[in-house]
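Note to self: keep these together.
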Amino acid sequence: MNLAISVTTIRLILGIIAAILVGTNHPLLVAILITLAFLLDIADGKIARARGETTTFGVYYDILADKIIIVGLLLVLGYEDYISFYIGLLLFIREYMIDSIRTVAISQGTVISANWQSKLKGAMFMLAILGIVWAQVINTPELTYASNILGWIALVFSYVTLLVFFVKNSQLIRQAALLKK
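Structure:
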């Protein structure tokens, strides 16, 4: 396991611990863990590229860790009524659709990496999540409200990127639909 994959594993663990702690009386700890996980998300790819350790597994593991952390946190924050539960649920559905196409692509020997729209979507959700958890620490309802709005904007943007993803990969989808087992 290379350093970048180790960093991804650490951020995944931090994100899961933070999600577990959301409903407890430790908002500062939750906010710090989520902030660290998101900072490590920035670092892992840079580390892989700087060290020449970029791998297909690393690309998919990074994407998977992003999805687990972001969707998991949105679902837990929704369950605890910090954000609309539907944001997490609809994002989960969208991510499942994307992963289905990625799985088909892998079966055909094609790697579909995250594009800039995916990274922007992720950053918008990260900012919404950070706003919500830090609003609990500093007791700022306006920040919670603004973060909820950003969450809805990010969700709409994520479905626009889903359409772009389907159009961009329509040939792959058509070919896969014609394959016989």
